[in-house]
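Dear Dr. V.,

Thank you for agreeing to look over these. As mentioned in my earlier message, I'm a first-year student in the group and I'm still getting used to reading structure tokens, so any feedback on how I've presented them would be very welcome. I ran two proteins. I've put each sequence directly above its structure. The first is here:
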Amino acid sequence: MPPLSFPADRPPAVDQAMRLRWLWLAWLLAMLFHVDLGLMPLFHGQSPEIESQVPVAMLPLLFGAMLGYFLVPLACLVTIAYAASDPGHPARWRPWRRLHFWISVVYTISNLPHLIADILVPDSRPDQVALMVVLVLIGLLINREGWAWWREASRIAGPAAAQRPAIASPASSNTPSNNTELR
């Protein structure tokens, strides 16, 4: 089996879309585990109930907002997969890359008050605080990779794009996951 080789003038391109998909999956799993940890007292004969400040009539709105908060990252995952699998049309996906970056910023910012609240609550659990720190850190990584992915689209789809050399896309790269010779 021949070793992987890349042109001497250019290292292999970083696949931000793949990183973003895995980071969003990690974020979703951490979020679900945050909820799961909150329910753990049920399995030990204790109540996980917290005193709610939300009127019962507003609960359907709250549940709908929570559903939306979980569905947006899922939509990001699917849309990133479609954008990454269409390397021949980077300009088509540039607005999505910009929107995705700003969505990721909103999600990171929305986790900060939750982290601060978990720290300030007198009877907060250290495991929940640690998990919120992880969620914020994953969010910051998503922001960084989302920014790089958006900027890559600007470079590819810029006015002089026709004069630039082609950038390897995930589908045509020589990474072990895409090279059929290694399978």
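The second protein is here, in the same arrangement:
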Amino acid sequence: MTEATAAAPVKLWDLPVRICHWSFVLLIPAMWWTAENNEMGWHMRLGLILLVLLVFRVLWGFFGSSTARFASFLRGPGAVIAYFRSSGGGHAPAIGHNPAGGWSVMALLGAMLLQLGMGLFAGDPFDGATGPLNGLVGVMTADSLTEWHESFFWALVALIALHVVAVLFYLTVKRDNLVRPMITGSRPAPSGTVGMAPVPAWRAIVCLAIALVFAGWIWNGAPPF
């Protein structure tokens, strides 16, 4: 069997997943920079974009392509422990997230949602910079959420750093490039490997429309229906 036959490219990540991933990579440092330089108008605009992407990604985790769905990569503790125990022996290239990587993704998504959620209520109206939901909570609650929003950012940074270290470990030790598939959407895999099962494009359009409507509702202070 030739090498080309043994390791043919298979589809791994769809375009929505890749757009979300690289948008997060750009948005998080951009939001830190705007906050540090008191560019709060831009900080909130970028936060609105992040909200759209996060809501979309959550929806896509239920209605997207096979490798994008949470059900395809979330495994119980036993599967995660077994994965780590067998890591010394090497693994075949995964079509999707491995059991440990799946929970890493959920931790990052959860941390971004929590950070963003606190930011929606944070701020001081006397400073002129408040989240769109600031008026729904009292001053003391808003002050506490503002402090937590500033502090928790570094927990998010720690999770991102751990994620980067894991990617570098796979690249340098296991010789498994996890970055390239997130750019190209495909990766080499043993012959006969079943790749990503796509879904119709209209699902992405509907999920994006829902995310935009929800973000617009939040931006306007979540008025009652």
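From my reading of the second output: Strands lie at 7-11, 123-124, 129-130, 186-190. The chain has a mean pLDDT of 90. Does that match how you would interpret it?

Kind regards,
E.
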